[in-house]
Amino acid sequence: MGVKHEASKGSASKAALAREVWRSLFDFTMATRSERDELLARRGLTPNDLNVLFTLEVDGLAMNELATAWNCEASNATWIVDRLEKLGLVERRAHPTDRRMKLVGLTAEGAKTKASLEVEYYRPPRELVALSGHDLEVLVASLRKLRHFGDVEG
Fold this sequence. Notes:
Strand content: 5-15%
Structural class: mainly alpha
CATH topology of the domain at 43-146: Arc Repressor Mutant, subunit A
Distance between the termini: 41 Å
Number of helices: 8
Shape: elongated
Number of strands: 3
């Protein structure tokens, strides 16, 4: 019975640590959000638009693939594409093998905007840069373990 109690105590401690880590990551992300939102606002974009731009490539995807990737209804995906098309960032094109289907891909301006946003969005906040090299090494080693956690080997 003592062994069971120790395992339970260890699990609670690990669960509490996981909650603290998640809360800290979430709070940090939210606390630095205004800097990222400014990058979008200057371009007339929303955080949802960023998700769309980061999903798309120049080659394009079918509307049903986009709705699945964006976890939304096809009608909502159409509305998002319409909005970004008006901004000149995406375009609808004929599918190369199925003329009934349209692909949505980045325009040259969309690809340029995406590349610029990737550079700016992935620039680390100054609070993160202020951590010691050792702290950053420990943090990146832990986060690398999470990066592929959900990947399915096959």
